[in-house]
Amino acid sequence: MSNMSDLKPWFREDLARVLMSIYFTSVTARSDSSRTAEFRSGFAAALSSVAINIGVNPDSFLAPEDVNLLRRDHGESD
């Protein structure tokens, strides 16, 4: 980066909104195929791992059914 004035801070709330918008775009683009559950679980898991890395709680942007799906897939109980 050649100019430090180009540096813009990102806040956790900003990043949470970015993750939320990516997630909701994926939700609207889903089809009713036999692989939908696999895609849904994998996509939610990927976004959750990024969220956890930057300090955002995945429960704040994932639909409850996806939170439950991830917990079930990873052996957690409610």
Can you offer a commentary on this structure?
The chain has 78 residues and is an all-alpha fold. It has a domain at 36-78. Helix content is 58%, strand content 0%. The chain is built from three helices and no strands. It has helices at 12-28, 36-53, 64-73. Helix 1 (12-28) packs antiparallel against helix 2 (36-53) and helix 2 (36-53) packs across helix 3 (64-73). The longest helix has 18 residues, at 36-53. It is elongated, with a radius of gyration of 15 Å. The termini are far apart. 13% of the residues are buried. The model has no long low-confidence stretch (mean pLDDT 81).
Secondary structure blueprint with pairings:
Elements: H1 12-28, H2 36-53, H3 64-73
Helix pairs in contact: 1-2, 2-3
